[in-house]
Design goal:
Strand order of the largest sheet: 2-1-5-4-3
Bound molecules: flavin mononucleotide
Oligomer: single chain
CATH superfamily: PAS domain
Number of helices: 6
Length: about 180
């Protein structure tokens, strides 16, 4: 499907799809985050076909409950050449949602030139979902009535304040949540 062929934007519905414990959702993008590859699990969980996903920007599956600040952190991390790990709520074609524990990494060629990005996602623990859902709701409300960088900076400030009270770095926080229990 070309970008000119308009796809309707899914309207969120309150229906959670759960990823099985040993299931992985994989995607690969170009440097502009247009999708170049998805595995079958991606299509099965999201409800989108390969044709609907390929060459589309990855924000096609962005859920409106996700704070902008999380994606700002993701891109800041990737642009530095580092790997990002975090919890993401995604939208399905029918508006349902699914939570993932995502690992996103830049892909470099032998000359060190950026080729694109990869992401592998699996089911988060339920403890993680409960904690993150609450935190993201607060981050989203910190972004309310703000635009662009102002919005993402406000929610990142809230996240940093939260981490300071927890006395943890962002990565310590996400790792510890993942180790809180087995995923289900
Ligand atoms: C490899 C890769 C995987 C990504 N996976 C997701 C994803 O699963 N869900 C999502 O909402 N955004 C994902 N993104 C981030 C999107 O490109 C985008 O920044 C995000 O959806 C926010 O959309 P916006 O920048 O239009 O606000 C991914 C980016 C890359 C490079």
């Amino acid at each position: 499907m070309t970008k000119s062929q308009h796809q309707s934007i899914p309207q969120p519905i309150n229906n959670e799809i759960r990823l099985g414990e040993n299931q992985f959702i994989v995607s690969k993008t170009d440097t502009q985050s247009h999708i170049l590859y998805i595995n079958r699990r991606f299509m099965q969980i999201s409800g989108f076909t390969e044709e609907e996903l390929l060459n589309q920007p990855h924000n096609l599956i962005r859920h409106p409950d996700m704070p902008k600040g999380v994606f700002k952190l993701l891109w800041q991390t990737l642009k530095k050449g580092d790997e990002f790990i975090g919890y993401v709520k995604n939208i399905c074609k029918d508006g349902s949602f699914y939570w993932v524990y995502a690992h996103v990494t830049p892909d470099y060629d032998s000359k060190g030139e950026l080729m694109g990005y990869y992401s592998v996602r699996r089911a988060p623990t339920r403890t993680a979902v409960t904690t993150i859902d609450k935190l993201y709701t607060q981050m989203l409300s910190a972004e309310k009535n703000k635009q662009g960088d102002q919005a993402s900076n406000a929610s990142i400030a809230l996240l940093e304040a939260f981490l300071a009270t927890e006395k943890k770095s962002y990565f310590q926080f996400v790792h510890q949540l993942d180790n809180a229990e087995t995923s289900a």
